[in-house]
Write a structure and sequence with these properties.
The protein has 9 helices and no strands. The longest helix has 23 residues, at 157-179. It has 2 domains: 3-50, no CATH class; 67-179, no CATH class. Helix 1 crosses helix 3 (41-50) and helix 5 (97-107) packs across helix 7 (122-133). By secondary structure, the protein is mainly alpha-helical. It is 62% helix and 0% strand.
């Protein structure tokens, strides 16, 4: 039963407060506040516990995720950081997911990157990071190491970066040799 259902059951009983340590006048006030939906949660829990009820499952909470608000928040922060310096400020431009992810990873702090991971799937962020930010090595070496350790669960970031760049270099060299 929920807290409200338990209190409804309890308050429907005659003399519910007896043997609970709650006096009669206080019990009337609690019941009146409950019926008016003005009884605080802490008081509700205290009443139920003093009347012999016990919690069998903790309350579960879920954070509200409004993707439009999160996206606009990140976009405003990027504009304040002048991440879109090449765009005309008077124009109303739509920022692609790819560009938003790239700019947040390059220009904003960890709290905003955490928000980015709530907005987009990890796989998508990893793909864009590999395509756009990792090739900027060694300029963003420390940033790349940080993301590898914190967000992508890579144990040896230096080796990962080195191997990735070597694979890219081999692929590039193979393309050049095929063209000649």
């Amino acid at each position: 039963m929920t807290t409200v259902q338990s209190l409804q059951t309890l308050f429907s009983r005659r003399g519910w407060h007896k043997n609970s340590g709650i006096n009669e006048s206080t019990a009337r006030v609690y019941k009146k506040r409950f019926l008016e939906k003005r009884l605080e949660m802490e008081t509700q829990i205290k009443i139920l516990e003093s009347c012999g009820y016990k919690v069998i499952q903790e309350m579960q909470w879920e954070e509200q995720r409004d993707p439009v608000k999160m996206r606009s928040y990140l976009t405003v922060k990027l504009k304040n950081e002048n991440a879109f310096w090449s765009f005309d400020p008077a124009s109303h431009y739509e920022i692609s997911d790819e560009m938003l992810i790239e700019k947040v990873l390059l220009h904003l702090d960890l709290d905003d990157v955490n928000l980015l991971f709530r907005l987009f799937p990890k796989k998508m962020i990893l793909k864009i990071w590999k395509e756009k930010i990792l090739p900027l090595e060694p300029m963003n070496h420390q940033l790349n190491r940080l993301y590898l350790i914190l967000y992508f669960d890579i144990k040896d970031p230096d080796r990962y970066i080195r191997n990735y760049l070597l694979r890219k270099q081999i692929t590039f060299n193979e393309r050049i040799s095929k063209e000649n």
